[in-house]
TrEMBL record:
Classification via CDD domains: NAT_SF
Domain N-acetyltransferase: 23-176
Pfam families named among the record's database cross-references: Acetyltransf_3
Gene3D superfamilies in the cross-refs: 3.40.630.30
Origin: domain of life: Bacteria
GO MF terms held by the record: acyltransferase activity, transferring groups other than amino-acyl groups
Protein name: N-acetyltransferase domain-containing protein
Lineage summary: Bacteria, Candidatus Nomuraibacteriota
InterPro entries: Acyl_CoA_acyltransferase (IPR016181), GNAT_dom (IPR000182)
Length: 176
């Protein structure tokens, strides 16, 4: 990595870059839109979006089935290269699939080591939340994500089938 990757809370300074990344995900056909993107279509929407992210972090006005969660933007230089979502606790659904941490790297920024560093930094954040053992899941066919999880100490707990797709459930002891 030429520039050091850092995780930041949503910040208007990087909002244009973030919107470009989300546009890349949509163009790729990604079905996993970031939380709050229904509110954040242009720069004028940033304040409303940011208020939702703050409320989500604090556990205020959560939609049914949601838990308190913090969304981080992964920044390298002045560019958003990915996003990382930390769920502060698990509910019934997250215990099956989703886990404590979800992450995505912009299609144009993949294969640069960003996901590994994002997860490493995300694990530090979960430790600060008192999470001693983090659950992270991925599709069985997502070899890149599996490697990222394993590089960060992930141990395969089990495989489950969800809607016909085999999911891998990894546990990482938070001893960083």
């Amino acid at each position: 990595m030429k520039h050091k990757l850092k995780l930041i809370l949503p910040n208007k300074k990087y909002a244009t870059s973030y919107l470009k990344m989300e546009k890349e995900f949509r163009a790729e056909g990604s079905k996993t839109a970031s939380r709050g993107m229904d509110l954040f279509k242009s720069l004028k929407d940033f304040s409303l979006y940011n208020r939702k992210m703050i409320n989500d972090r604090r556990g205020i006005n959560l939609e049914k089935g949601r838990v308190p969660a913090t969304l981080y933007w992964a920044v390298v230089g002045n560019k958003i290269v990915g996003r990382l979502d930390i769920r502060h606790r698990l509910n019934k659904n997250l215990r099956i699939i989703g886990g404590h941490i979800g992450y995505a790297v912009a299609p144009s920024e993949r294969k640069k080591g960003y996901a590994t560093e994002m997860l490493r930094l995300g694990l530090k954040k979960t430790k600060q939340l008192g999470i001693k053992k983090a659950l992270i899941t991925c599709d069985e066919g997502n070899i890149a994500s599996r490697k990222v999880i394993e590089k960060n100490g992930g141990v395969l707990g089990n495989k489950i089938k969800v809607k016909g797709v085999c999911k891998l459930r990894f546990w990482i002891r938070n001893i960083l």
